[in-house]
Design a protein that fits this description.
This protein is of the alpha/beta class and about 375 residues long. The chain is built from 13 helices and 14 strands. The protein folds into two domains: about 15-255, Type I PLP-dependent aspartate aminotransferase-like (Major domain) (Aspartate Aminotransferase, domain 2, 3-Layer(aba) Sandwich); about 255-380, Aspartate Aminotransferase, domain 1. Strands 2-10-9-8-5-3-4 form a seven-stranded mixed β-sheet, with helices on both faces. Strands 11-14-13 form a three-stranded antiparallel β-sheet, with helices on one face. Strands 1-12 form a two-stranded parallel ribbon. The structure holds pyridoxal-5'-phosphate.
Amino acid sequence: MEKRYLFTPGPTPVPPEVLAATAAPIVHHRGPDFRVVYERCLTRLREVFRTENEVLMFVATGTGGFESAVANLTSPGDRALVVSAGSFGERWAAVANAYGADADHLRYAWGETPSPDDVGERAAGAKYVTLVHSETSTGVVADVEALASAAHEAGALVVVDAVSSLGAVPLETDAWKLDVVVTGSQKALMTPPGLALVSASEAAYEAAAAGGAPRFYFDWARTRKAQEALNAAFTPAVSLVAGLDVALGMVLEDGLDAMFERHARLGRACREGAKAMGLELFSPDNDRSAVVTAIRAPAGVDSDELLLLLRDRHGVTLAPGQGELKGKVFRIGHIGWFDVFDIASALSAVELALTELGAPIERGVAAARAFEAYDEFAAA
Ligand code: PLP
């Protein structure tokens, strides 16, 4: 028997109440049993997105939600500005190109933070601008409010990848005038993978009605109309919706602001603990970086090797470096159903495994420093 620990930024651990809801007997999606859950879940989603817009639900991953945005907004040759500073930003360039957009790629080095001035300069003439709120591959959380404002001033629609940020760090769909916000069920929303959630503004629906690419399943207007009548266009993932409903209830019971504060505290605890051990951060050392902490492997250690050892010998799963960071960094997620004991466990496991690999790190300090930093945040 082995206990397993999941400390990744998605999928994330799922609370037992949510798992229990997903395991309940299947109900028919056109009957009253489901309709009650469906309506409540859609209402809760609007609260968590902080929007009056319908939040469209697709059985898909986050990438599917993003593809829905590109499909609804891209007529061949439409200009789009894609802002990237890591793996997910680059994915959106690939999606936009796949749909025949004339995509201008404002590409930063991985780990950089996009600047509103650059976006403002490059957005002129673009029908839409894609932004990544939390670039999970690097740990950087961008200032989406400022970036969106620069894009709007240039006359573009704003499409935001909030896959790892929604519910974790502040995001105001309506107040920041975000035309499209996409997330997935498997991150801060504490639900298994499988639901893509997309809010779209009236301006985005108008642009979709006036053009876009050929589409059927991902057609926003079809899903919006069906959801408004609580009569889903296609069979929803009823078990995932039941789970998401419970998870959103938990989020709203604590309150979004309390969630955001908890994530900032966890981020700070993780960074301080890692530094105390003598490790160097890859992600920025600031409280905005509250989703995932990316840490450089010490000299001479391959981070993939470290992760294998953690998994095989200690039952602990962390996230690897992606793309150009493969083998160089490892990532500890702290969104959703995480507390400071999870941070202490993750750091203690890293400390142990690095010692086993012969890395020169300071032992016995990371967990203590993490708890201390967690408390200092509250006292500040
Ligand atoms: N964007 C970001 C920022 C992510 O973290 C992820 C998660 O892996 C995705 C997009 C892609 O989501 P999915 O894997 O659900 O398609």
